[in-house]
Amino acid sequence: MAPDRRKMIVEAATKSFSLFGYKATTMDQVARLANVGKGTIYTFFKNKEELFEEIISTLVKEMIAEAESVIESDLTFAENVHLALSRLLAFRSQHQLMIKLVQEEKEMGTIAVSEMLRHVEDEIIAYLREKMETAISKGAIPPRDIEITSFLLLKMYIALVSDWERNHEPLSSEQIAEIMKVFLLSGPAN
């Protein structure tokens, strides 16, 4: 069976971006890691940016699948939001590529990385928005400005699980779930 060169290139690029970051990754490096000629990469991808977009797109799909895997029909919407966000943030903090990209954005401010991280955030917010629309239509939560609430849910969750812990005792999952529940029930109205 012939090797899937496209897959080998994507895996090699993912490895390179994870180890060296976006800025330091070159197409020559990717070609060496994939054990293909540099020209082979260009038969599949126009440039490094397109290759990076492919990898991030796949990563976002994996993140959403992770979130979906913890949703339970017998739990409340607030409990499921907590589980899904927790899984998304765990995935993000345990996935080597995400760790490297967050580090590169913070240390170097690489524009392409900032744009991709914003894309990941936008996808998570879109996912939350879709879940909120469903919950509102079922009467599980009161109607509200879905866009603002989705954004605030993500930012509030990040703040509670990471920022809060810099100067305070970590909150338990139950405490975070309760805060999210209160926010969802009395958060921004339309």
CATH structural fold name of the largest domain: Tetracycline Repressor, domain 2
CATH top level assignment of the largest domain:
Mainly Alpha
Number of structural domains: 2
| Secondary structure category | mainly alpha
Calculate Rg over CA atoms: 19 Å
Overall 3D geometry? elongated
User: Level of helix content?
Assistant: over 70%
Q: Please state the second-level CATH architecture of the largest domain.
A: Orthogonal Bundle
Say how many strands there are. Answer: 0
Tell me the strand percentage band: under 5%
Major β-sheet annotation:
none
Distance between the termini: 57 Å
Low-confidence stretches: none
Can you count the helices?
A: 9
- List the helices and strands in order: HHHHHHHHH
CATH homologous superfamily classification of the largest domain:
Tetracycline Repressor, domain 2
Mean pLDDT: 87
What would you note in describing this structure?
By secondary structure, the protein is mainly α. The chain folds into two domains: 1-45, Arc Repressor Mutant, subunit A; 56-186, Tetracycline Repressor, domain 2, CATH 1.10.357. The chain has helices at 5-24, 27-34, 38-44, 48-69, 77-94, 96-108, 111-137, 146-163, 173-186. Residues 3-63 form the HTH tetR-type domain. InterPro entries: DNA-bd_HTH_TetR-type_CS (IPR023772), Homeodomain-like_sf (IPR009057), HTH-type_Tx_Regulator (IPR050624), HTH_TetR (IPR001647), Tet_transcr_reg_TetR-rel_C_sf (IPR036271).
